Amino acid sequence: MTRDEIDPITLTVIWKGLLSIAEELGVTLRHTAFSEGVREGDDFSTAVFDAQGRMIAQGPFSPGHLGSFPYVVQAALDYFPAESLSPGDDILLNDSQLGSGHFPDTFQILPVFLAERLIGFVCNSAHQADMGGAAPGSQKVHGVTEAFQEGLRILPIRFVRGGEVDEDILRLVLGNVRLPDKVRGDLMAQHSANRAAAVRLEQLFRDHGVDTVEAAYEIILDRSEASMREALAKVPAGTYGFEDYMDDYGPDTEPIRMAVDVTFDGEGGVIVDFSRSSDQVPAAINSYLNYTRAYSVFAIKVFCDALWPQNAGNMRPIKVVAREGSFFNPRFPAPSGGRAVLQVRMFDAINGALAKAMPERAMGAFSHWSNPNIGGVDDRTGQPFIMYDAIMAGYGGRASGDGPEALCPVMNCSNIPVEVHETHNPVLIQRLELIPDTGGAGRYRGGCGLRKDVELRTESATLSLLGDRHDFYPYGLFGGAPGAPAETVLNPGRNARALPSKGLVPIARGDVVSLRLSGAGGYGPPGEREAEAIRADLRDGYISAEAARRDYGFDD
Amino acid sequence: MLRIAFDIGGTFTDCVLHDGDSGRVRALKISSTPGDPAEGVLAGLAALFSENAIDAAEVTAILHATTVATNAVIERKGAATALLTTKGFRDILIIGRQKRYETYDLYADKPTPLINRGNIFEVAERTGADGAVLEALDMASVDAAIDAVLAAGAESVAVALLHAYANPGHEGAIAARFRDRAPDLPVSLSSDISPKYREYERTNTTVVNAYLRPVVERYLGHLQTALKERGFKRELSVMQSNGGMVSPALARRYPVRILESGPAAGVLMASQIGQALGADHVITFDMGGTTAKLGAVDGGTPAVAPVFEVDHVRYRKGSGLPVSVPAIELLEIGAGGGSIAAVEMGMIGVGPESAGAEPGPICYGQGGDRPTVTDANLVLGYIDPDYFNGGALPLDGDGAAAGIAERIGRPLDLSAGEAAWGVHLVATSNMEHAMRLVSVERGRDPRRYALVAFGGAGPLHAARLARSIGVPRVIVPAAAGVGSAVGLLRAEPRIDVGATRVLGLDDGAAPTIAEVYDGLWQRAEAELAQIGDAAGVRWSRYAQMRYAGQGFEVHVDLPDGPVDGAFPALAAAAFHDAYERQHRYRDDRAAVEGVDWTLVASLPNPQADHWLFGAGEVARRGRRSAWFPERDGYVEVPVRNRAALAADGGGVGPLIVEDPDCTAIVLPGDRAAIDGAGHLIIDIGQGDD
Questions:
Q1: Beta bridge partners of B310
Q2: Topology of B75-216 in CATH?
Q3: What is the ipTM of this complex?
């Protein structure tokens, strides 16, 4: 069977079948996982690869792992060439450089065979609750200066052979993490989800024949590439640059410059270059190139070709580079545990650049999210706990309307319900609410910031902060105002103390940490906002009467 | 014994009359009257009665399913509603769960909440996860909130406080205050409507209930009055999403429970017909104009899900409003007769966009110019252009062929027939993925299941679907076109009451489980009192359980018998089995916990078991050309109605079985037969080909 002989109907059935395998793999993983990040936050990814290690289909999950997947599988194949693999194997790795940029993301790559012949791989990654290291959750930023302090580093290993999990390896891993039951549950959930997907991939090959499916792969990749090139060629040729800053990489440190230059060649190629950014920093927030690639590809795809299924084909025309030793392409062993904080900012930077080429697709900067962990011992049970949280607020104003309130930005997680946190952790959440007057004014208003106050209800714990935008506000576009800055406060209303956006803070029973996210940027001049929209904002309390007067000159 | 059932849908209202003595079933399909749905019903009943010389006073039961609640949500035409929350948590409804339903689409919006932020008010109070009161309810803040609710002119109120599932005290006190100050204002409490944890889902469910109360109150009140005026002596019964009937009094108080009323009735019909034909395990397949709905029946019991979504965008999971009350589990995808086919990325795409009733498929000749699944089925010869809906709507076959050739065939270099076949196959393949989710992915072995196909388009695709997934038998019920209304005739009164109590299943758990079920039993008794005669009530229990530390639960049917010291171990064993069936993995070492506990009370249906469909139909026989890839394209095949097929003692595919409300395709190698009640049975691969 050659590619010319595949009819469009068979192609359709094969392609949709692959996408559904990748999606179902993720649904199984979500339903069987133990860590909050996976089960409530959807912080995982899935993909199907061909026998050469090319990515053919992905599930619609976290784009951070998605964009790094092709490189992860290539790295695993460097350690395990195809001829060394057997049915019943499953490969495990979590290295930050080879993987998706920090240790908590574990990848499992399972080779699939049909009658002794390797026909491809099914893979998934999941954010583990802990991988050991300096702080609960393995994401401590400040004070961590090399990767070896961040926990257990696993280069590609054969975690399962002959269908049996290697108990020695499992013991080695579980002996190095804070929540061994959860990590064990998630490693097993990853493996069994892979196995179920492998059965379906085998069936797809049996139904259509190996030659037909492999010929279909070539068509899928080539068409995807052509589609992406066509979309990229429509963007006016030129280089579009943008610069923004992260506040710092810990208390009393310098801002980090995030500079990007995006060059469209007018013929269907694009280069995203972060070289002008700061050098790598001695704190666990550097973005390894795989991670930089992931979010750069994501941003280009959102702007140019949002709904085409992602695979190795449509990633071909997109080149992502950064100077070696820079913040976006650090040298090992640069620490990187807290790099998740960057995903929103990589998009913001590229969005700022592309606003000059595609104003109708651009939006004001996001409210910056917050990813705190509180870890310690729950003195009601004597057991260790880690409260992993993801707090997300508004989108920037867009060319077509206001930024939505409280919607997950780039990475696409769910939040974790207050009642779930309080059932499983010794905390009391005192409030979770939008902060009026924080969304950037504009013809289209940016979404509001969000405030979450958490009280500790056990003897003591460690609070690990991971936020930003205390000093550098989310920008507005085309005359839109920036969003209000973020703040983090310990014990508001009593001995209130301002906390940095990142860092470790010991806290004790009764302490309240108040996380207040920035607002998102506006789009277009505030003077062009319709009176009816301002009235609705006043009625619903998104803005106050003073802000209406100050920002819009509105007095009803 | 005469019983009537009516199912009001968006386009049609189906009325069915069943004479329990003779078994005769008469059906009537009439256009719905969206302005006043009762008007269509009454007109339909009048026609049915005069045609069959029946008096309203003779009717012993009136059974009803309706989309009135669903439509009010989708069209945002419910009551002006206010919400009261715990202080500091005003925005739970606005925040939602925050996930985009399309990862790569940053331009999509969230679902519009049913209440604007301006109509959400806070009260000072706090209850903890264990139900302990951490801050007493501040009545001054309650009074201030009530002032604000009244000033806002709300017609209905929802109250959803944190952890109210664990301790309903504060919500109850607020309701009492409303009774004093505004006795006519309906108040929905989260601890009553959906006492389960996860505050957004519970709050939204309560808000949906409040939003619907005045609407359903008006609607049912009007209908009850009108029926009484027409001389009906019996009270109406209303179908709920869980597949059980309730009194209008309960439906008016819990309208959120009737959102999936019609689809639930369809599954029930499929379940009962399956059982009558010896198939306890059934996959249900209801394909209409815009969507296909798939459900499952295990051992005669329809699968029930603890939460579903209403008002989806493109049927994407996570795009709608979650409703956390038990409902018959249905997977809905955008694949119906009206689904539009197009070439995208060099492939054929079908749906979820639909041509709807207006303009409809090209072949309707009402201005539609984009090819649909129905157009493809017409070009393939599966539908007779002169006998669609009994000949009521002549179809334009040439127009359909030209549209498919132009829009699908030309870009892909296929003939009209090949292109139409591609559309049919891709639509079937989309449904196959959905069916795989319902069966294999949920631990159901298709080889042990029968596929019951109904809805206007279901029987056209059913046999191919059954083949692709390995289901050995397809059943196309008699009266498949009015399946939901027939399902109503077979429904039992049923109540599901549930509560959240996160509880490790160790040996000491029995007293707590017993306490939970005592509370549920009292609630169920109180609801049963509103249904009327509760003689012969049957009780059963199920729970949502998981391995301790997980976030998603598995449905587990709990053992009958007393909740004694042995019960937790029996329940845990049932969980391990259910988990392994679904996920192909078990961990006997891991701790198990129960999360939601549900008690079911059902009452026997005093129905006759005697059914006779389509009696008196004249045998019709013919031939036409239809596309079968097994025969390399178009081939002349026999066309039979059920009466003819019954007289012939069955037949072997390729074959078309065609009745006014339903056409079924029998593939080469499959055997078709009509059973005594008029149901069409297709055995896959059992014909001599």
A1: B321
A2: Rossmann fold (3.40.50)
A3: 0.92
